[in-house]
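Project standup — Tuesday

K.O.: blocked on the structure for the chain from last sprint. Re-posting the sequence here as requested.
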Amino acid sequence: METVLVIGAARSGIAVSKLLLKNGYHVVLTDSNEIKEKAELQDLGIEVFDGGHPDCLKDKEYAFIVKNPGIPYRVPFVHYFVEQNAKIYTEIEVAYRFAKNFNYAAVTGTDGKTTVTTLLYEMLNRQKKSLVAGNIGTPLCELVLEHTDTDYNVALELSNFQLLGIETFRPHVSTVTNLAPDHLDYMDSLEAYYQSKMRIYENTNADDYFIRNVDDENVVKYAQNIPCQVIDFSLKRKDVDLYKDDKYAYYKGTQLFTLSDLKIVGEFNCGNAMMASCMAYLMGVSLFNIQEVIREFSGVEHRIEYVGTIDNVRFYNDSKATNTHAACAGLSAFEKNVILLCGGKDKHISFDDLKQYDAVVKKCISFGQTKDKFKDIFTNQISVETMKDAFEKAVLSAKPGDIVLLCPACSSFDQFKNYEIRGEIFKQMVHDYASKRNEE
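H.V.: unblocked you, prediction finished:
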C-alpha cells in the first residue's frame, strides 16, 4: 500500500485525506495546529500528527505529498520535500484524478474570479444539476467523495496557490480574468505569480477553450503558447471573439445577453458577466438560461455589496477587495462622495494606482497594519487603529448623499481571520448603527 503525506488539516486537507483513504492509500496527515477531528480521523485509519511536524515524517517513503495551498513552499518542513524533488500536489490535482466524469470550467485571475465563477455556476446549474468548488469555498475533494461516479459540470475557482500544485488537471473551458500585483508575501517574484496563473491551460488540447482578456497587457504578455482554442475578449474592441456594443454582449456574432439586464454595477462587472456567459455557452448552456441568470443575478457577497441606506448615506461592503487592483475596480463604480475605509495586512504591494480616485474619495479613513501607507495616496486621509474606529469616524463625518465604502485594498489577516468575517462585522456595524438611529 502506497503512503501519501498530507500537510495541513484545514477543510481541504481533511477532504483529500478521506478521498485518498477511500482509494486505497495509507494517509499520514500533519498540521502545526491542533486537529479537532483527530480521533475521528484516526478511527478511519488515517495516521495523524498535530501540534507540529515531527522529523520522523521526513524518513517515510511517500508516493506523493498533498500540501494545503495556503502554506508557502519556503516553510522549512515543506521546503525539505521541495529539495528532495518530491511530487507536491494540491487537492485539486487529487480530486481531478478520481472524478473522471466531471467536466470543468475553471476561472483564475487576480480579481473577478468569484463573480465569474458564481455567475457561471448559476448558468450551468440552470441548464442541469451542476457543482461549484475550489477557492470559492468548497474543496473539490469533498464533492468528489460525494459524487465520484456522477457526470457533473463543475464551475471551479482556482487560486495561483492551487495551480502551483497541479500536474494533469485539464479544464474544458478556462480563463484568467486579469493580472495585477498580489501575493508578493508568498511568491518569489511578480513574474512567478503571473506565470503560475497560466498553468490553468497547460494540459488542455485542441478540443478545449481559453478566454484571453486582450485588454489586460499582462495577460497578453504571459498567455503564450496556448495549446487549446483561444477566444479573445475585450470591453474596448470589437475586432475580437467576445465583445459588446452599446446594447448587447456578443460571442462571434451571437447575442449572449442585453447589457441593460445586468444588475451588478461597474464596467468590470460587465466583463465578468461576458466571460461567465461565454464559458457557459461553450459548456452547452442555452442562451435562454444564460439570459435568465443575467436578469436575476444581484452580485456576490462582500463584492461591492449594498448593505443599506441610513439618513441618505449609502453603505457598501467590498471586503473582498484584498489588493489594489480590486480596490480600483470597487472605487470605479462610484463618481464622488466616497468615504473610504481601507487598510489591513501589508502584502508589500504599491497603493499608487488608487491615486487616480482621489477626486472620488471625499475622505479616506485607513486602519490596520497599513494604516499610514495611504497618507500619500489621498488628499484627505486619517489613520486609526481598527475598522470599528474607522466606521465610527465615517458615520460622524458622513453627510446626506455620501457613500461609506469598505474597500480595504489589503488582506484581512492582521485583524481578522478572513475577508468574509471582516465583511460580516462591517455589515453588523451598519445594522447596529441603523437600529441606534431608529431608536433616537
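K.O.: great, moving the ticket to review. The longest strand covers residues 102-108. The longest helix spans residues 419-439.
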